């Protein structure tokens, strides 16, 4: 049975009860245990707590300097400062453990067939127009892939994360074309909580994924060109009752691609820690590309694949630069540059880090057509 989770306040209470300096091994041991329970928290959440605790510490330190206090009051303030310092150490350590646990061991498979298609947009809209007829409607065209949905719903990053969770369950079930799962097991595979809101979000994504179709052309087994004409992303059975076991079946072309080994491995922690939707889409796209030695793309193409809908060149450059800077902060890139060739076209060229390259260690090459813009 896993150890019972206790709150950070309870951990701080245990530490202050020792009445030892922060550098003492006993204190360090409790800090590490507390941090381990917080390793699932995102980088953004941790930074907010670190900043909040740092602000609290600074305000109390000012009181020690600016106010006339009794020795008893000073002692009490120092104890509160100590608590703020311990909390900061716990949150900092939690991120070190998070990186060691999740960053360096990408464990969630994601098929090239979806990764290279860049199927998700940065939209989060679920608008349904009145009078919508059940006819396939083009909702996204990134020049590599066309996505169709009868209710005009674009695939979002949330949908892509659910699809990644399905890949994980597919691998755990023995890589069968058809397999069963529950929304609870899917939530766990996605490292999500199992509350009602999560269930509803996953259920909505399953419905959208099942009704979505996509088409693109790619090389399969070198030499044979397959044109995938509006295939279903998923074929689901039992979708009418979200509380029971569901059965998912991949389309033939999707299953054949996965079975060929055209899979990259992602870290959901990295995906969560990237700041913007465009950076997250870039992370979904890059591992399959760098595994094949592809590290250079036209600006217009890469901006579109990231989900950007900007029209001006300067805006596209800004969006791509911000996403790449974010990826460098996460240590996914060792460098990048945007350069102009003789024709005036701008290209993005990246230097992938070992962390990014590790996502493609188990990937067999599958060549993807690049369409001219």
Summarize the structure in words:
The protein has 373 residues and is of the alpha+beta class. It contains 14 helices and twelve strands. The chain has a four-stranded antiparallel sheet with strand order 2-3-5-6. A three-stranded antiparallel sheet has the order 4-8-7. Helix 1 (8-18) crosses helix 4 (71-103), helix 2 (25-37) crosses helix 4 (71-103) and helix 12 (299-305) crosses helix 13. The longest helix is centred in the N-terminal third of the chain and has 33 residues, at 71-103. Mean pLDDT is 84; it is low at 219-225 and 361-373.
Sequence-ordered SSE layout with sheet pairings:
Elements lengths: L7 H11 L6 H13 L5 H24 L4 H33 L4 E4 H4 L22 E4 L4 E3 L8 H16 L5 E4 L1 H7 L6 H16 L1 E8 L3 E9 L1 E4 L8 E5 L1 H8 L3 E4 L1 H6 L3 H14 L5 E3 H7 L7 H17 L3 E8 L5 E7 L1 H5 L15
Antiparallel strand pairs: 1-9, 2-3, 3-5, 4-8, 5-6, 7-8, 10-12, 11-12
Helix pairs in contact: 1-2, 1-4, 2-4, 3-4, 6-7, 6-8, 7-8, 11-13, 12-13
